[in-house]
Amino acid sequence: MGTLAALLLCPLITVSMGWEATFYIFGFVGIVWAALFLVLTSATPEDNSFITKYEQNYIAQCIEEERNSTEADKNQENQNVFKFLWQVFKSPGKIYHVTNYC
Description:
This protein is mainly alpha-helical.
């Protein structure tokens, strides 16, 4: 979204204010974005004052489930991904279309 906005705004800014203004404006926006990120985020859900207790509990539950999942489950997921990728690469038509149009 930001890239699309920048691509649309850069020519307008450059024509109306000069090419230097493009760097100043997007630099300022980047600094504001970083400051907001540092103020509004936290390292853990418990430290975040912008989410509810329900959301904190849900996040904690998901983290706990991820920790409790077995290695066998993770290996099975990796095997499923590998099988899918192998099926894609086995069909030469699909690869041809990707390489032909890229």
